[in-house]
Write a structure and sequence with these properties.
Helix content: 25-40%
Strand order of the largest sheet: 2-1-3-4
Number of domains: 3
Largest sheet: 4 strands, parallel
Distance between the termini: 53 Å
Oligomer: single chain
Order of helices and strands: EHEEHEHHEHEEHEEEHEEHHHH
CATH topology of the largest domain: D-amino Acid Aminotransferase, Chain A, domain 1
Number of strands: 12
CATH architecture of the largest domain: 2-Layer Sandwich
Structural class: alpha/beta
Radius of gyration: 21 Å
Number of helices: 11
Shape: globular
Length: about 350
């Protein structure tokens, strides 16, 4: 018998619906339950063939447990090694190489020096930075946000250089990005499951949270929807995410990828509505069952897709042409799980 677990936190509706759907479809050969952890011993698995992770981004203990589980053979959705190393500025850089439009974006050093560093730790950093060059490239209005953050925490809308410096001085030791504002005609939030199953949802991020899917807009054209779908699949396959959402702002008919690192995306019934909720429950259940059927005991059961170590390099060599890179075979890509680089002091 194969066993699937879901690891979650404050969610109310999706985890139970996910478990119930798998137990309805599994025919007794595949079952699902909420993950139960009473101890974590090095190199020993937790007893699940598949675990769907919805919370480890907020709980470091869970992230370490999932890496241990993956090494012991559990298929973890999403890959905890890659997710630990991922961040938004890299994702933007990769999107440029893949030919996916993104807002103009610049990486900024933290306003305050990290703990245990001194001015000597930053001998390679010009002071002051080329602020005029940065502002001319990005333009105003702009947004400033953490390079590896999420959930709209510590995000600032900026109107001019003075506004920038006022807000930048409030960011402490956070490493931030300055990003062009895309004033959009339409907006989409797109689920992608298994690197191929896509649900495109028209969305209005300026509405209150519970009304964002009630946009009142006319349906988008087939041409734009096809382009969005193509970009969603391309980004998720190159990033290696099995469960993610991608957001696009449409400006003058061009889809700009705004946010595409959401590996534990909102799937609550009260947020996404009944039709979208049904799609994500059914698709996630089918995908987890597929991963359970393909599970190989004590083997590496992670998926890496078109992994960036090959994908980005080939896209670069071919001038950043969209689709230039070819998939890396799963066996080669997963032969040695990526590890988050150990943090080093700058001093």
């Amino acid at each position: 018998m194969k066993k699937i677990g879901i690891l979650f936190g404050q969610e109310k509706t999706f985890p139970q619906a996910f478990v119930d759907r798998i137990n309805q479809k599994g025919g007794g050969d595949i079952t699902a339950e909420f993950v139960h952890i009473d101890k974590v011993i090095q190199s020993e698995g937790p007893g699940y063939d598949v675990i769907v992770d919805r919370i480890s981004q907020s709980v470091p203990f869970y992230r370490a447990m999932l890496k241990n589980a993956a090494m012991a053979g559990t298929a973890v959705i999403n890959n905890p090694f890659w997710w630990s190393a991922d961040e938004k500025f890299f994702n933007n850089s990769l999107a440029v190489r893949l030919g996916v439009p993104v807002p103009k974006t610049v990486l900024l050093p933290s306003c305050q020096m990290p703990d245990d560093t001194t001015g000597d730790s930053f001998r390679n950093l010009s002071f002051p930075l080329d602020w005029d060059g940065i502002f001319n490239y990005v333009g105003f209005p702009a947004y400033m946000k953490p390079f590896d953050g999420g959930g709209w925490r510590d995000v600032y809308k900026l109107h001019d250089a003075q506004d920038f410096f006022d807000k930048y001085n409030q960011t402490g030791q956070l490493v931030m990005m300055l990003q062009e504002e895309i004033i959009f005609d339409d907006y989409f939030r797109c689920y992608c499951i298994g690197g191929e199953h896509v649900r495109i949802m028209q969305y209005e991020p300026r509405n209150p949270h519970h009304l964002r899917y009630e946009h009142g807009k006319a349906p988008a054209s087939k041409e734009i929807l096809d382009q969005v779908r193509d970009y969603v699949i391309k980004l998720n396959q190159y990033l290696g995410y099995d469960f993610n959402t991608v957001e696009f702002a449409i400006r003058d008919g061009v889809p700009y990828a705004i946010d595409f690192c959401n590996p534990a995306p909102d799937a609550e019934l009260t947020s996404v509505g009944e039709e979208n909720f049904e799609w994500v429950v059914e698709t996630a259940a089918n995908y987890a069952i597929e991963r359970a059927k393909n599970h190989r005991p004590e083997a590496d059961n992670l998926t890496w897709g078109k992994f960036v170590s090959t994908g980005a390099a080939k896209a670069s060599l071919l001038g950043g042409q969209a689709g230039a890179a070819t998939p890396m075979a799963t066996e080669e890509a997963s032969a040695k799980p990526a590890r988050k680089p150990r943090a080093k002091k700058l001093s």
